[in-house]
TrEMBL record:
Pfam families noted in UniProt: F-box-like
Keywords: Ubl conjugation pathway
PANTHER family with a match to the protein in the record: PARTNER OF PAIRED, ISOFORM B-RELATED
Protein name: F-box domain-containing protein
InterPro entries per UniProt: F-box-like_dom_sf, F-box_dom, Leu-rich_rpt_Cys-con_subtyp, LRR_dom_sf
Any GO CC annotation of this UniProt entry: SCF ubiquitin ligase complex
Residue ranges occupied by any F-box domain in the UniProt entry: 26-73
Alphabetical list of SUPFAM superfamilies matching this protein: F-box domain, RNI-like
GO biological process terms held by the UniProt record: SCF-dependent proteasomal ubiquitin-dependent protein catabolic process
Keyword hit for Protein biosynthesis: no
Claim: Transmembrane is one of the keywords in the record: no
Length: 438
């Protein structure tokens, strides 16, 4: 018997001899055709493409930079060159969502968007220099599919722009917060004339003519829109019980933000859960009149909530937090910034396992056990406090992907990276952009 030995097989590539040419059949992810890589990369978002996929190799970079994969573009910071932004907008002209936060020259960028991005659905221009009315009118004409216009903190003067919003058939949500040129007349025109509007956001309203929101005007506006409003943000500093009672009639609300809710009474607050059954996001800031037992009554009917923001609600205590953890186990974001009477979060840590964002800045009376685990937590906001820094170190020990942010002040939302390579807290000069607020 003769034993014939076969030559070793090359596992990296096999070859076939045809005439004088050798054809290699490539194997492995690095050698996949570009169209196949593009189909795989569709499962990643833009941030993952930029940080994880593009640095791998030139072939992956070429596939990952295909315009069909980039539906969202974000630009932030005064140091970004305007030409770089314009080039990216030209390169990824199929983008549907563009965010610009505190960039240096917004007007040239806006013109580039009007030229290139005909499929634009959502544009955010926050905390930028003043924009001309003609540029905004041109945006409406050029991007006819625009649904969401967010211009918080970016001033513009309106002579006819707010009236022309009614002719935009696709527009369904606007945010003109913190614009001194927006008056009560403009708000009335937008809400009454834009028949497709289901989202209105005005978290800061300080008009140049000093005519503020009042209960009669808001009630009149709600009579026009309460059957279609799905998201609402209001500066409640000049509003009273009549407005808060009217909000209870907006049965389709999924997102509600009541900023500066000094006059919100607890008996109305605790009815929000029963009246607004579709509510998923609730932000009540500086609700000084809401007592702890009223928080507990509210949580009994609020099991669908995914985001809660009770910034500055000083009467919320540990008992309220226990009720929150019991009934809101699906919570993904919890903000209790500047809630001075919360002493422990043990119930939240044990029951809210899906929590991804936690803000406990300036909660200086918090105490923690030796072992704290939040495996799904992605972002933690704290202040310059010894106890909170110790908590951050404990959470970081069990979750190395945790992103830590240090809040600078009790009175604004500025924050910055506070995270050393070895897991120890300290301050950077880098500022973190405004996070998911209206």
């Amino acid at each position: 018997m003769v034993l014939k030995l076969q030559p070793p097989i090359d596992t990296s590539a096999t070859s076939s001899l045809r005439g004088s040419r050798i054809n290699f059949i490539r194997k492995g992810y690095a050698q996949l055709p570009q169209n196949v890589l593009i189909q795989i990369f569709r499962h990643f978002n833009e941030e993952e493409l930029r940080k994880t996929i593009i640095p791998v190799c030139q072939q992956w970079r070429a596939a990952a930079e295909n315009p069909v994969l980039w539906k969202t573009l974000k630009f932030s910071g005064l140091k970004i060159n305007t030409s770089v932004i314009n080039n990216k907008i030209w390169q990824f002209s199929s983008a549907e969502r563009i965010t610009m936060n505190n960039i240096k020259e917004v007007m040239p960028v806006l013109r580039q968007i009007c030229r290139c991005c005909k499929n634009l659905v959502h544009i955010t221009i926050r905390h930028c220099h003043e924009i001309s009315e003609d540029s905004l009118r041109y945006l409406l004409v050029s991007c006819r599919n625009l649904k969401i216009l967010d211009m918080k903190g970016t001033p513009f003067q309106s002579l006819i722009f707010c009236e022309e919003l009614a002719y935009s058939k696709s527009l369904c949500s606007v945010n003109f917060s913190d614009n001194k040129y927006i008056t009560l007349k403009h708000i009335s025109s937008i809400v009454v004339n834009c028949h497709n509007l289901n989202g209105f956001h005005m978290s800061i309203f300080q008009p140049i003519n000093k005519i503020y929101l009042t209960d009669p005007e808001i009630n009149c506006l709600f009579s026009q829109t309460n059957y279609r409003l799905q998201s609402l943000t209001l500066d409640c500093s000049s509003l009273g019980s009549a407005t808060f009672s009217a909000i209870l009639r907006c049965k389709d609300l999924e997102y509600l933000c009541l900023n500066f809710a000094y006059n919100l009474e607890g008996n109305i607050f605790q009815m929000l859960g029963k009246s607004l059954e579709k509510l998923k996001v609730l932000k009540v800031r500086f609700g000084h009149q809401i007592k702890d037992n009223q928080f507990m009554n509210f949580f009994d009917d609020s099991s669908k909530l995914e985001v809660i923001d009770f910034t500055g609600c000083n009467k919320l205590s540990t008992f309220g937090m226990k009720s929150l953890a019991q009934y809101c186990s699906n919570l993904k974001t919890l903000i209790i910034r500047n809630c001075k009477n919360v002493f422990t979060l043990e119930s939240v840590f044990s029951r809210c396992s899906n929590l991804e964002i936690l803000n406990i800045a300036f909660c200086n009376k918090l105490h923690f056990k030796e072992k704290c685990k939040m495996p799904n937590l992605k972002e933690l906001f704290i202040s310059d406090d010894k106890r909170l820094k110790m908590l951050a170190d404990k959470l970081k020990a069990t979750n190395r992907d945790l992103l830590l942010k240090m809040c600078e002040s009790e009175f604004n939302k500025k924050s910055k990276s506070a995270f050393a390579p070895n897991g120890t807290c300290y301050f950077f000069r880098k500022r973190h952009p405004d996070y998911r607020t209206n």
